[in-house]
Target: ABC-2 type transporter transmembrane domain-containing protein
Amino acid sequence: MRPGMLALIGGFRAEIVQLLRSRLFLALTIIQAVTFLFLVSLFGMTGSFAPTAIINEDQGPYAKEFIAQLEAAHHSFDLRVMDKASAQAALNRGDLVAIIIIPKDFSNAISQGKEATLTVSVDNVNTDMTEDIKRALPSAIVSFGNHLHLNNIRVHPQEIDLIDHDTGFIPYLVVSGLALDAFVIACMLSAMAVAREFEGGTVRLLAIAPVHPMFSILGRVLATNVISTLAMILPVAIAVFGYQIMPLHPLEMIGVILLSIVIFSCIGVALGAVLKRTMPVASLVFGLALPLYLCSNSLEPQRFDGNLIWAIAHISPVYYSVGILEQAFHELQVTPEPVWANFVILLGWAVVMLLVSTAMLRTAMMEKTVTQAVQEERTEPRHNWLWQGRPAVLLRGNWPLLLFCLFLLGCGTWLNVEQRQHRDNLSSQQQASNQLVSEQQQDKLLLDYQNDMTDLLLHDHLLRSKATDTVKLVADMRTRTVLQQLDGKHKARLLLYLYNTKLIEDERHVINMRGIDLRGGQFAGLDLRDSDMTGANFSGADLRNVNLRFATLNNLDLSNADLSGANLSGADMANVKIDNANLSDANLAGVRGMSIEQLGRAGSLNGTTLPDGSVQPGNEEGEEE
Model:
Protein backbone atom coordinates (compact mmCIF):
# COMPACT_ATOMS: atom_id res chain seq x y z
CA MET A 1 0.00 0.00 0.00
CA ARG A 2 1.27 3.47 -0.85
CA PRO A 3 2.68 5.57 2.02
CA GLY A 4 0.14 8.33 1.41
CA MET A 5 -2.76 5.92 1.79
CA LEU A 6 -1.21 4.45 4.96
CA ALA A 7 -0.92 7.96 6.39
CA LEU A 8 -4.55 8.74 5.50
CA ILE A 9 -5.82 5.53 7.11
CA GLY A 10 -3.62 6.15 10.12
CA GLY A 11 -5.00 9.64 10.55
CA PHE A 12 -8.55 8.29 10.17
CA ARG A 13 -7.99 5.67 12.88
CA ALA A 14 -6.24 8.12 15.18
CA GLU A 15 -9.13 10.58 15.01
CA ILE A 16 -11.69 7.84 15.65
CA VAL A 17 -9.71 6.79 18.73
CA GLN A 18 -9.43 10.41 19.84
CA LEU A 19 -13.18 10.96 19.51
CA LEU A 20 -13.95 7.73 21.34
CA ARG A 21 -11.70 8.89 24.17
CA SER A 22 -13.50 12.26 24.15
CA ARG A 23 -16.96 10.78 24.42
CA LEU A 24 -18.15 13.58 26.70
CA PHE A 25 -17.10 16.24 24.21
CA LEU A 26 -18.74 14.36 21.37
CA ALA A 27 -21.94 13.90 23.37
CA LEU A 28 -22.03 17.58 24.34
CA THR A 29 -21.59 18.61 20.71
CA ILE A 30 -24.50 16.43 19.61
CA ILE A 31 -26.62 17.58 22.56
CA GLN A 32 -25.86 21.19 21.67
CA ALA A 33 -26.99 20.56 18.10
CA VAL A 34 -30.22 18.95 19.28
CA THR A 35 -30.72 21.85 21.68
CA PHE A 36 -30.58 24.19 18.71
CA LEU A 37 -33.24 22.02 17.06
CA PHE A 38 -35.57 22.53 20.02
CA LEU A 39 -34.61 26.19 20.23
CA VAL A 40 -35.65 27.05 16.68
CA SER A 41 -39.01 25.37 17.24
CA LEU A 42 -39.68 27.95 19.96
CA PHE A 43 -39.82 30.56 17.23
CA GLY A 44 -43.12 29.08 16.07
CA MET A 45 -45.11 31.71 17.91
CA THR A 46 -47.82 33.95 16.61
CA GLY A 47 -46.54 35.94 13.63
CA SER A 48 -46.91 39.67 13.25
CA PHE A 49 -47.38 42.18 10.49
CA ALA A 50 -48.20 39.62 7.81
CA PRO A 51 -47.74 41.17 4.34
CA THR A 52 -51.32 41.66 3.13
CA ALA A 53 -52.62 43.31 -0.04
CA ILE A 54 -55.74 45.43 0.23
CA ILE A 55 -57.81 45.94 -2.94
CA ASN A 56 -60.39 48.66 -2.35
CA GLU A 57 -62.98 48.55 -5.12
CA ASP A 58 -65.46 50.61 -3.12
CA GLN A 59 -63.63 53.84 -2.12
CA GLY A 60 -66.62 54.70 0.08
CA PRO A 61 -66.45 56.01 3.69
CA TYR A 62 -67.14 52.62 5.26
CA ALA A 63 -64.41 50.97 3.18
CA LYS A 64 -61.87 53.56 4.34
CA GLU A 65 -62.92 53.11 7.95
CA PHE A 66 -62.59 49.33 7.64
CA ILE A 67 -59.04 49.69 6.26
CA ALA A 68 -58.21 51.93 9.22
CA GLN A 69 -59.42 49.22 11.61
CA LEU A 70 -57.30 46.62 9.80
CA GLU A 71 -54.25 48.83 10.22
CA ALA A 72 -55.06 49.24 13.91
CA ALA A 73 -55.31 45.48 14.51
CA HIS A 74 -52.52 44.68 16.98
CA HIS A 75 -49.39 43.40 15.18
CA SER A 76 -51.48 41.66 12.54
CA PHE A 77 -51.31 43.23 9.09
CA ASP A 78 -48.73 44.95 6.96
CA LEU A 79 -51.28 46.42 4.54
CA ARG A 80 -50.24 47.25 0.99
CA VAL A 81 -52.72 48.94 -1.36
CA MET A 82 -52.47 47.14 -4.72
CA ASP A 83 -54.46 46.34 -7.82
CA LYS A 84 -55.84 42.84 -8.34
CA ALA A 85 -53.30 41.67 -10.93
CA SER A 86 -50.26 42.85 -8.96
CA ALA A 87 -51.60 41.37 -5.73
CA GLN A 88 -52.28 37.97 -7.26
CA ALA A 89 -48.82 37.90 -8.82
CA ALA A 90 -47.23 38.82 -5.47
CA LEU A 91 -49.26 36.12 -3.68
CA ASN A 92 -48.10 33.51 -6.20
CA ARG A 93 -44.47 34.63 -5.75
CA GLY A 94 -44.77 34.29 -1.99
CA ASP A 95 -44.35 38.03 -1.30
CA LEU A 96 -47.77 38.20 0.35
CA VAL A 97 -49.64 36.15 2.93
CA ALA A 98 -53.14 37.29 1.99
CA ILE A 99 -55.27 39.47 -0.27
CA ILE A 100 -58.35 41.27 1.09
CA ILE A 101 -60.79 42.54 -1.54
CA ILE A 102 -63.39 45.13 -0.53
CA PRO A 103 -66.18 44.93 -3.15
CA LYS A 104 -67.77 47.89 -4.90
CA ASP A 105 -71.04 47.71 -2.97
CA PHE A 106 -69.41 47.45 0.48
CA SER A 107 -70.35 50.92 1.80
CA ASN A 108 -73.77 50.82 0.14
CA ALA A 109 -74.59 47.41 1.65
CA ILE A 110 -73.58 48.54 5.14
CA SER A 111 -75.54 51.77 4.89
CA GLN A 112 -78.66 49.77 3.94
CA GLY A 113 -78.13 47.19 6.68
CA LYS A 114 -77.37 44.40 4.22
CA GLU A 115 -74.75 41.69 4.42
CA ALA A 116 -71.30 42.88 3.27
CA THR A 117 -69.10 40.17 1.81
CA LEU A 118 -65.31 40.35 1.64
CA THR A 119 -63.06 38.06 -0.38
CA VAL A 120 -59.92 36.97 1.46
CA SER A 121 -57.33 34.90 -0.41
CA VAL A 122 -54.75 33.32 1.91
CA ASP A 123 -51.44 31.71 0.98
CA ASN A 124 -50.87 28.42 2.84
CA VAL A 125 -47.06 28.19 2.83
CA ASN A 126 -47.49 27.54 6.54
CA THR A 127 -50.71 27.23 8.49
CA ASP A 128 -49.68 29.55 11.33
CA MET A 129 -49.67 32.58 9.04
CA THR A 130 -52.97 31.46 7.53
CA GLU A 131 -54.55 31.09 10.96
CA ASP A 132 -53.11 34.44 12.09
CA ILE A 133 -54.93 36.14 9.23
CA LYS A 134 -58.16 34.30 10.03
CA ARG A 135 -57.90 35.26 13.72
CA ALA A 136 -57.01 38.89 13.06
CA LEU A 137 -59.86 39.57 10.61
CA PRO A 138 -62.75 38.94 13.04
CA SER A 139 -61.01 41.15 15.60
CA ALA A 140 -60.73 44.00 13.11
CA ILE A 141 -64.36 43.49 12.00
CA VAL A 142 -65.66 43.60 15.57
CA SER A 143 -63.73 46.82 16.18
CA PHE A 144 -65.11 48.24 12.95
CA GLY A 145 -68.69 47.34 13.89
CA ASN A 146 -68.38 48.65 17.44
CA HIS A 147 -66.83 51.89 16.25
CA LEU A 148 -69.72 52.56 13.85
CA HIS A 149 -72.41 50.87 15.98
CA LEU A 150 -73.15 48.33 13.23
CA ASN A 151 -74.50 44.85 13.83
CA ASN A 152 -74.93 43.23 10.41
CA ILE A 153 -71.37 42.75 9.16
CA ARG A 154 -70.13 39.29 8.23
CA VAL A 155 -67.04 37.97 6.49
CA HIS A 156 -66.81 34.93 4.18
CA PRO A 157 -63.09 34.13 3.82
CA GLN A 158 -62.04 32.28 0.67
CA GLU A 159 -58.71 30.51 1.16
CA ILE A 160 -56.78 29.96 -2.08
CA ASP A 161 -54.10 27.29 -1.52
CA LEU A 162 -50.99 27.70 -3.62
CA ILE A 163 -49.99 24.12 -2.82
CA ASP A 164 -52.10 21.04 -2.20
CA HIS A 165 -51.11 20.57 1.45
CA ASP A 166 -50.57 22.70 4.55
CA THR A 167 -47.33 22.97 6.52
CA GLY A 168 -47.23 24.02 10.15
CA PHE A 169 -44.72 26.63 11.27
CA ILE A 170 -43.13 24.29 13.84
CA PRO A 171 -42.48 21.51 11.26
CA TYR A 172 -41.15 24.18 8.91
CA LEU A 173 -38.67 25.45 11.52
CA VAL A 174 -37.61 22.00 12.71
CA VAL A 175 -36.66 20.95 9.17
CA SER A 176 -34.67 24.13 8.63
CA GLY A 177 -32.99 23.48 12.00
CA LEU A 178 -31.44 20.29 10.60
CA ALA A 179 -29.11 22.48 8.51
CA LEU A 180 -28.04 24.22 11.73
CA ASP A 181 -27.36 20.85 13.38
CA ALA A 182 -25.18 19.77 10.46
CA PHE A 183 -23.20 22.99 10.79
CA VAL A 184 -22.67 22.63 14.55
CA ILE A 185 -21.61 18.98 14.46
CA ALA A 186 -19.49 18.88 11.29
CA CYS A 187 -17.86 22.27 11.76
CA MET A 188 -17.09 21.67 15.43
CA LEU A 189 -15.57 18.20 15.05
CA SER A 190 -13.41 19.14 12.04
CA ALA A 191 -12.30 22.43 13.56
CA MET A 192 -11.32 20.71 16.80
CA ALA A 193 -9.43 17.96 14.96
CA VAL A 194 -7.29 20.52 13.08
CA ALA A 195 -6.82 22.90 16.03
CA ARG A 196 -5.71 19.97 18.22
CA GLU A 197 -2.84 19.22 15.80
CA PHE A 198 -1.52 22.75 16.20
CA GLU A 199 -2.21 22.98 19.92
CA GLY A 200 -0.48 19.65 20.64
CA GLY A 201 2.53 20.44 18.45
CA THR A 202 2.10 17.35 16.25
CA VAL A 203 2.19 19.57 13.15
CA ARG A 204 5.96 19.82 13.51
CA LEU A 205 6.27 16.05 13.48
CA LEU A 206 4.02 15.76 10.44
CA ALA A 207 6.15 18.32 8.61
CA ILE A 208 9.19 16.07 8.73
CA ALA A 209 7.31 12.86 7.98
CA PRO A 210 8.32 10.93 4.82
CA VAL A 211 4.82 11.49 3.36
CA HIS A 212 2.83 14.62 2.78
CA PRO A 213 1.40 15.78 6.16
CA MET A 214 -1.94 16.59 4.56
CA PHE A 215 -2.70 12.88 4.21
CA SER A 216 -2.76 12.41 7.97
CA ILE A 217 -4.94 15.46 8.55
CA LEU A 218 -7.23 14.47 5.69
CA GLY A 219 -7.71 11.10 7.36
CA ARG A 220 -8.73 12.83 10.57
CA VAL A 221 -11.18 15.10 8.73
CA LEU A 222 -12.72 12.12 6.94
CA ALA A 223 -13.16 10.48 10.33
CA THR A 224 -14.99 13.55 11.64
CA ASN A 225 -17.21 13.48 8.55
CA VAL A 226 -18.13 9.86 9.24
CA ILE A 227 -18.88 10.63 12.90
CA SER A 228 -20.86 13.74 11.88
CA THR A 229 -22.94 11.68 9.47
CA LEU A 230 -23.70 9.15 12.19
CA ALA A 231 -24.42 11.91 14.70
CA MET A 232 -26.94 13.52 12.34
CA ILE A 233 -29.06 10.39 12.64
CA LEU A 234 -30.21 11.60 16.06
CA PRO A 235 -31.65 15.03 15.07
CA VAL A 236 -33.17 13.51 11.92
CA ALA A 237 -34.78 10.80 14.05
CA ILE A 238 -36.12 13.44 16.44
CA ALA A 239 -37.62 15.35 13.51
CA VAL A 240 -39.16 12.21 11.99
CA PHE A 241 -40.30 10.29 15.06
CA GLY A 242 -40.50 13.07 17.65
CA TYR A 243 -42.10 15.83 15.59
CA GLN A 244 -43.76 13.35 13.20
CA ILE A 245 -42.31 15.07 10.11
CA MET A 246 -41.92 12.43 7.43
CA PRO A 247 -39.63 13.31 4.49
CA LEU A 248 -41.42 13.11 1.16
CA HIS A 249 -38.11 12.62 -0.65
CA PRO A 250 -35.73 10.69 1.68
CA LEU A 251 -32.89 10.38 -0.85
CA GLU A 252 -32.96 14.11 -1.47
CA MET A 253 -32.77 14.68 2.30
CA ILE A 254 -29.80 12.32 2.68
CA GLY A 255 -27.98 13.91 -0.26
CA VAL A 256 -28.26 17.48 1.00
CA ILE A 257 -27.27 16.53 4.56
CA LEU A 258 -24.14 14.72 3.32
CA LEU A 259 -23.22 17.62 1.08
CA SER A 260 -23.80 20.09 3.92
CA ILE A 261 -21.56 18.04 6.20
CA VAL A 262 -18.74 18.23 3.63
CA ILE A 263 -19.12 22.02 3.30
CA PHE A 264 -19.36 22.69 7.03
CA SER A 265 -16.47 20.33 7.71
CA CYS A 266 -14.28 22.34 5.32
CA ILE A 267 -15.34 25.53 7.08
CA GLY A 268 -14.28 23.90 10.34
CA VAL A 269 -10.89 22.99 8.87
CA ALA A 270 -10.37 26.61 7.84
CA LEU A 271 -11.34 27.89 11.30
CA GLY A 272 -9.05 25.38 13.02
CA ALA A 273 -6.16 26.39 10.77
CA VAL A 274 -6.66 30.07 11.52
CA LEU A 275 -7.25 29.89 15.31
CA LYS A 276 -4.99 26.88 16.12
CA ARG A 277 -6.55 26.56 19.60
CA THR A 278 -9.42 24.35 20.67
CA MET A 279 -11.14 26.73 23.12
CA PRO A 280 -11.42 29.70 20.70
CA VAL A 281 -12.57 27.31 17.99
CA ALA A 282 -15.33 25.84 20.16
CA SER A 283 -16.49 29.28 21.29
CA LEU A 284 -16.51 30.66 17.76
CA VAL A 285 -18.42 27.74 16.23
CA PHE A 286 -21.11 27.78 18.92
CA GLY A 287 -21.23 31.57 18.79
CA LEU A 288 -21.61 31.66 15.00
CA ALA A 289 -24.20 28.89 14.76
CA LEU A 290 -27.40 30.74 15.66
CA PRO A 291 -26.56 34.11 14.00
CA LEU A 292 -25.57 32.25 10.83
CA TYR A 293 -28.85 30.37 10.93
CA LEU A 294 -30.97 33.46 11.59
CA CYS A 295 -29.25 35.47 8.86
CA SER A 296 -29.80 32.66 6.37
CA ASN A 297 -33.51 33.66 6.20
CA SER A 298 -34.46 30.25 7.59
CA LEU A 299 -37.31 31.40 9.81
CA GLU A 300 -39.56 32.69 7.06
CA PRO A 301 -40.15 31.75 3.43
CA GLN A 302 -39.07 34.07 0.66
CA ARG A 303 -38.21 37.60 1.85
CA PHE A 304 -40.78 38.78 4.41
CA ASP A 305 -37.92 40.27 6.49
CA GLY A 306 -36.89 42.56 3.63
CA ASN A 307 -34.57 42.47 0.68
CA LEU A 308 -31.43 43.30 2.68
CA ILE A 309 -31.56 40.22 4.91
CA TRP A 310 -32.65 38.15 1.92
CA ALA A 311 -29.60 39.35 -0.03
CA ILE A 312 -27.27 38.65 2.90
CA ALA A 313 -28.76 35.18 3.22
CA HIS A 314 -27.35 34.23 -0.19
CA ILE A 315 -23.83 34.43 1.26
CA SER A 316 -24.56 31.52 3.60
CA PRO A 317 -24.65 27.88 2.45
CA VAL A 318 -27.28 27.31 5.14
CA TYR A 319 -29.73 29.28 2.95
CA TYR A 320 -29.43 26.78 0.12
CA SER A 321 -29.42 23.76 2.47
CA VAL A 322 -32.67 24.92 4.05
CA GLY A 323 -34.20 25.44 0.61
CA ILE A 324 -33.49 21.84 -0.38
CA LEU A 325 -34.48 20.38 3.00
CA GLU A 326 -37.88 22.09 2.93
CA GLN A 327 -38.46 20.62 -0.53
CA ALA A 328 -37.31 17.17 0.60
CA PHE A 329 -39.60 17.14 3.65
CA HIS A 330 -42.57 19.32 2.71
CA GLU A 331 -42.33 19.86 -1.07
CA LEU A 332 -42.10 23.58 -0.39
CA GLN A 333 -40.11 25.92 -2.61
CA VAL A 334 -39.16 28.57 -0.05
CA THR A 335 -36.47 30.26 -2.14
CA PRO A 336 -36.94 32.03 -5.47
CA GLU A 337 -34.16 29.82 -6.82
CA PRO A 338 -35.28 26.33 -7.90
CA VAL A 339 -34.04 23.32 -5.95
CA TRP A 340 -31.65 22.20 -8.68
CA ALA A 341 -30.00 25.64 -8.59
CA ASN A 342 -29.63 25.41 -4.80
CA PHE A 343 -27.98 22.01 -5.19
CA VAL A 344 -25.57 23.25 -7.86
CA ILE A 345 -24.64 26.22 -5.66
CA LEU A 346 -23.98 23.86 -2.73
CA LEU A 347 -21.73 21.76 -4.97
CA GLY A 348 -19.88 24.95 -5.84
CA TRP A 349 -19.58 25.74 -2.14
CA ALA A 350 -18.13 22.28 -1.54
CA VAL A 351 -15.47 22.67 -4.25
CA VAL A 352 -14.54 26.20 -3.17
CA MET A 353 -14.32 25.28 0.52
CA LEU A 354 -12.18 22.22 -0.28
CA LEU A 355 -9.69 24.47 -2.06
CA VAL A 356 -9.86 27.28 0.50
CA SER A 357 -9.51 25.00 3.53
CA THR A 358 -6.60 23.13 1.91
CA ALA A 359 -4.80 26.39 1.10
CA MET A 360 -5.38 27.84 4.58
CA LEU A 361 -4.29 24.63 6.29
CA ARG A 362 -1.13 24.39 4.19
CA THR A 363 -0.27 28.05 4.87
CA ALA A 364 -0.84 27.61 8.61
CA MET A 365 1.38 24.52 8.70
CA MET A 366 4.16 26.35 6.86
CA GLU A 367 4.01 29.27 9.31
CA LYS A 368 4.07 26.90 12.26
CA THR A 369 7.05 24.83 11.16
CA VAL A 370 9.24 27.21 9.15
CA THR A 371 11.37 28.21 12.15
CA GLN A 372 12.11 24.62 13.14
CA ALA A 373 12.83 23.66 9.53
CA VAL A 374 15.46 26.38 9.21
CA GLN A 375 17.10 25.50 12.51
CA GLU A 376 17.35 21.77 11.86
CA GLU A 377 18.66 22.32 8.29
CA ARG A 378 17.42 19.01 7.10
CA THR A 379 19.68 17.13 4.71
CA GLU A 380 16.77 15.39 2.99
CA PRO A 381 14.57 18.20 1.74
CA ARG A 382 12.73 15.81 -0.54
CA HIS A 383 10.81 14.57 2.51
CA ASN A 384 9.70 18.06 3.51
CA TRP A 385 6.62 18.34 1.36
CA LEU A 386 5.72 21.74 2.72
CA TRP A 387 8.63 23.49 1.02
CA GLN A 388 8.57 21.74 -2.31
CA GLY A 389 5.30 23.30 -3.43
CA ARG A 390 3.76 20.00 -4.57
CA PRO A 391 0.07 20.24 -3.67
CA ALA A 392 -0.62 17.85 -6.55
CA VAL A 393 0.59 15.01 -4.27
CA LEU A 394 -2.55 15.51 -2.23
CA LEU A 395 -4.74 15.08 -5.26
CA ARG A 396 -2.85 12.07 -6.62
CA GLY A 397 -3.18 10.12 -3.38
CA ASN A 398 -6.59 11.38 -2.38
CA TRP A 399 -8.68 9.01 -4.46
CA PRO A 400 -11.29 8.40 -1.71
CA LEU A 401 -12.12 12.11 -1.63
CA LEU A 402 -12.28 12.25 -5.42
CA LEU A 403 -14.59 9.23 -5.45
CA PHE A 404 -16.73 10.86 -2.78
CA CYS A 405 -16.97 14.08 -4.80
CA LEU A 406 -17.88 12.11 -7.93
CA PHE A 407 -20.50 10.25 -5.91
CA LEU A 408 -21.98 13.55 -4.70
CA LEU A 409 -21.94 14.91 -8.23
CA GLY A 410 -23.76 11.82 -9.48
CA CYS A 411 -26.31 12.10 -6.68
CA GLY A 412 -26.77 15.77 -7.49
CA THR A 413 -27.37 15.04 -11.15
CA TRP A 414 -29.85 12.30 -10.33
CA LEU A 415 -31.63 14.48 -7.79
CA ASN A 416 -31.73 17.31 -10.28
CA VAL A 417 -33.44 15.14 -12.89
CA GLU A 418 -35.88 13.72 -10.35
CA GLN A 419 -36.59 17.16 -8.92
CA ARG A 420 -37.19 18.69 -12.34
CA GLN A 421 -39.62 15.91 -13.23
CA HIS A 422 -41.37 16.27 -9.90
CA ARG A 423 -41.53 20.05 -10.27
CA ASP A 424 -43.03 19.68 -13.74
CA ASN A 425 -45.63 17.25 -12.40
CA LEU A 426 -46.39 19.54 -9.47
CA SER A 427 -46.68 22.51 -11.81
CA SER A 428 -49.08 20.59 -14.04
CA GLN A 429 -51.16 19.56 -11.05
CA GLN A 430 -51.19 23.13 -9.77
CA GLN A 431 -52.25 24.47 -13.15
CA ALA A 432 -55.01 21.88 -13.36
CA SER A 433 -56.12 22.80 -9.84
CA ASN A 434 -56.10 26.51 -10.65
CA GLN A 435 -58.08 25.87 -13.82
CA LEU A 436 -60.62 23.82 -11.86
CA VAL A 437 -60.99 26.57 -9.24
CA SER A 438 -61.35 29.20 -11.96
CA GLU A 439 -63.91 27.06 -13.79
CA GLN A 440 -65.93 26.65 -10.61
CA GLN A 441 -65.85 30.39 -9.95
CA GLN A 442 -66.99 31.12 -13.51
CA ASP A 443 -69.78 28.55 -13.24
CA LYS A 444 -70.97 30.15 -10.00
CA LEU A 445 -70.94 33.63 -11.52
CA LEU A 446 -73.00 32.45 -14.47
CA LEU A 447 -75.40 30.44 -12.30
CA ASP A 448 -75.98 33.39 -9.96
CA TYR A 449 -76.63 35.61 -12.96
CA GLN A 450 -79.11 33.18 -14.49
CA ASN A 451 -80.93 32.85 -11.17
CA ASP A 452 -81.17 36.64 -10.82
CA MET A 453 -82.41 37.08 -14.38
CA THR A 454 -84.92 34.25 -13.98
CA ASP A 455 -86.34 36.02 -10.93
CA LEU A 456 -86.63 39.24 -12.94
CA LEU A 457 -88.38 37.35 -15.73
CA LEU A 458 -90.83 35.52 -13.48
CA HIS A 459 -91.57 38.07 -10.78
CA ASP A 460 -90.78 41.45 -12.32
CA HIS A 461 -92.01 40.79 -15.89
CA LEU A 462 -88.72 41.73 -17.47
CA LEU A 463 -89.82 40.76 -21.00
CA ARG A 464 -92.66 43.33 -20.91
CA SER A 465 -90.56 46.12 -19.39
CA LYS A 466 -90.06 49.50 -21.03
CA ALA A 467 -86.76 51.24 -21.70
CA THR A 468 -87.10 53.43 -18.59
CA ASP A 469 -88.30 50.73 -16.21
CA THR A 470 -86.09 50.02 -13.21
CA VAL A 471 -86.14 46.28 -13.79
CA LYS A 472 -84.70 46.77 -17.28
CA LEU A 473 -81.95 49.06 -16.00
CA VAL A 474 -81.07 46.51 -13.31
CA ALA A 475 -80.93 43.72 -15.88
CA ASP A 476 -78.68 45.79 -18.17
CA MET A 477 -76.28 46.66 -15.37
CA ARG A 478 -76.18 43.09 -14.05
CA THR A 479 -75.40 41.76 -17.54
CA ARG A 480 -72.58 44.23 -18.14
CA THR A 481 -71.00 43.56 -14.74
CA VAL A 482 -71.03 39.79 -15.10
CA LEU A 483 -69.72 39.77 -18.67
CA GLN A 484 -66.64 41.73 -17.55
CA GLN A 485 -65.76 38.86 -15.19
CA LEU A 486 -66.43 35.88 -17.49
CA ASP A 487 -64.01 34.11 -19.79
CA GLY A 488 -64.67 33.43 -23.47
CA LYS A 489 -66.47 30.13 -22.96
CA HIS A 490 -68.81 31.43 -20.28
CA LYS A 491 -69.54 34.58 -22.29
CA ALA A 492 -70.90 32.29 -24.99
CA ARG A 493 -73.08 30.45 -22.48
CA LEU A 494 -74.44 33.75 -21.14
CA LEU A 495 -75.19 35.03 -24.64
CA LEU A 496 -76.98 31.81 -25.50
CA TYR A 497 -79.04 32.17 -22.30
CA LEU A 498 -80.05 35.69 -23.31
CA TYR A 499 -81.02 34.45 -26.77
CA ASN A 500 -83.03 31.47 -25.50
CA THR A 501 -84.93 33.66 -23.02
CA LYS A 502 -85.72 36.12 -25.86
CA LEU A 503 -83.97 38.95 -24.01
CA ILE A 504 -82.00 39.90 -27.14
CA GLU A 505 -84.67 38.98 -29.66
CA ASP A 506 -84.83 41.42 -32.57
CA GLU A 507 -88.45 42.33 -31.87
CA ARG A 508 -88.01 42.83 -28.13
CA HIS A 509 -84.30 43.75 -27.57
CA VAL A 510 -84.84 43.94 -23.81
CA ILE A 511 -81.14 43.88 -22.92
CA ASN A 512 -79.23 46.83 -24.33
CA MET A 513 -76.08 45.36 -25.91
CA ARG A 514 -74.49 48.69 -26.80
CA GLY A 515 -70.84 48.66 -25.66
CA ILE A 516 -71.26 45.34 -23.90
CA ASP A 517 -68.03 43.36 -23.48
CA LEU A 518 -67.99 40.16 -25.57
CA ARG A 519 -64.32 40.37 -26.53
CA GLY A 520 -62.55 37.08 -26.97
CA GLY A 521 -65.76 35.11 -26.61
CA GLN A 522 -65.98 31.56 -27.95
CA PHE A 523 -69.23 31.73 -29.91
CA ALA A 524 -68.39 29.24 -32.68
CA GLY A 525 -71.43 27.43 -34.06
CA LEU A 526 -74.08 29.32 -32.03
CA ASP A 527 -77.49 29.91 -33.59
CA LEU A 528 -78.32 33.59 -32.90
CA ARG A 529 -80.53 34.38 -35.88
CA ASP A 530 -82.98 37.29 -35.60
CA SER A 531 -81.19 38.67 -32.54
CA ASP A 532 -80.41 42.32 -31.76
CA MET A 533 -76.83 42.93 -30.63
CA THR A 534 -76.44 46.51 -31.76
CA GLY A 535 -73.26 48.15 -30.45
CA ALA A 536 -71.73 45.03 -28.85
CA ASN A 537 -67.95 44.57 -28.80
CA PHE A 538 -66.98 41.23 -30.42
CA SER A 539 -63.36 42.15 -31.16
CA GLY A 540 -61.10 39.10 -31.21
CA ALA A 541 -64.05 36.76 -30.71
CA ASP A 542 -64.40 33.28 -32.21
CA LEU A 543 -67.52 33.47 -34.41
CA ARG A 544 -66.79 30.64 -36.79
CA ASN A 545 -69.89 29.11 -38.39
CA VAL A 546 -72.16 31.27 -36.22
CA ASN A 547 -75.71 31.80 -37.53
CA LEU A 548 -76.64 35.50 -37.49
CA ARG A 549 -79.19 35.54 -40.30
CA PHE A 550 -81.41 38.65 -40.29
CA ALA A 551 -79.79 39.81 -37.03
CA THR A 552 -79.48 43.49 -36.15
CA LEU A 553 -75.73 44.08 -35.87
CA ASN A 554 -75.40 47.82 -36.36
CA ASN A 555 -72.31 49.53 -34.87
CA LEU A 556 -70.78 46.16 -33.99
CA ASP A 557 -67.03 45.90 -33.32
CA LEU A 558 -65.81 42.75 -35.12
CA SER A 559 -62.17 43.77 -35.50
CA ASN A 560 -59.78 40.81 -35.44
CA ALA A 561 -62.73 38.43 -35.01
CA ASP A 562 -62.87 35.05 -36.77
CA LEU A 563 -66.10 34.90 -38.81
CA SER A 564 -65.02 32.16 -41.21
CA GLY A 565 -68.05 30.18 -42.37
CA ALA A 566 -70.47 32.51 -40.54
CA ASN A 567 -73.96 33.02 -41.95
CA LEU A 568 -74.73 36.77 -41.92
CA SER A 569 -77.22 36.81 -44.76
CA GLY A 570 -79.89 39.50 -44.49
CA ALA A 571 -78.33 41.08 -41.39
CA ASP A 572 -78.25 44.82 -40.68
CA MET A 573 -74.54 45.73 -40.44
CA ALA A 574 -74.36 49.49 -40.74
CA ASN A 575 -71.19 51.08 -39.33
CA VAL A 576 -69.74 47.68 -38.42
CA LYS A 577 -66.01 47.65 -37.73
CA ILE A 578 -64.44 44.58 -39.39
CA ASP A 579 -60.77 45.61 -39.45
CA ASN A 580 -58.57 42.49 -39.88
CA ALA A 581 -61.57 40.21 -39.38
CA ASN A 582 -61.49 36.80 -41.03
CA LEU A 583 -64.56 36.51 -43.31
CA SER A 584 -63.38 33.48 -45.29
CA ASP A 585 -66.33 31.49 -46.67
CA ALA A 586 -68.77 33.73 -44.77
CA ASN A 587 -72.22 34.37 -46.26
CA LEU A 588 -72.92 38.11 -46.52
CA ALA A 589 -75.68 37.82 -49.13
CA GLY A 590 -78.31 40.52 -48.68
CA VAL A 591 -76.40 42.23 -45.85
CA ARG A 592 -77.64 45.80 -45.43
CA GLY A 593 -75.58 48.86 -44.60
CA MET A 594 -72.11 47.44 -45.36
CA SER A 595 -70.02 49.41 -47.84
CA ILE A 596 -67.24 48.28 -50.17
CA GLU A 597 -64.86 50.43 -48.11
CA GLN A 598 -65.75 48.48 -44.98
CA LEU A 599 -65.20 45.14 -46.72
CA GLY A 600 -61.79 46.34 -47.88
CA ARG A 601 -60.62 46.48 -44.25
CA ALA A 602 -61.33 42.79 -43.63
CA GLY A 603 -58.36 40.53 -43.08
CA SER A 604 -59.60 37.79 -45.45
CA LEU A 605 -62.43 37.48 -47.95
CA ASN A 606 -61.45 34.15 -49.50
CA GLY A 607 -64.58 32.41 -50.68
CA THR A 608 -66.83 35.05 -49.10
CA THR A 609 -70.32 35.58 -50.51
CA LEU A 610 -70.64 39.35 -50.85
CA PRO A 611 -73.82 41.38 -50.21
CA ASP A 612 -74.59 41.45 -53.94
CA GLY A 613 -74.46 37.65 -54.11
CA SER A 614 -71.10 37.40 -55.85
CA VAL A 615 -68.48 35.05 -54.42
CA GLN A 616 -64.91 36.09 -53.86
CA PRO A 617 -62.22 33.76 -55.23
CA GLY A 618 -61.00 31.22 -52.68
CA ASN A 619 -57.48 30.33 -51.63
CA GLU A 620 -56.11 28.46 -54.63
CA GLU A 621 -53.42 26.70 -52.62
CA GLY A 622 -55.96 25.60 -50.12
CA GLU A 623 -58.26 24.35 -52.88
CA GLU A 624 -55.45 22.34 -54.45
CA GLU A 625 -54.70 20.75 -51.13
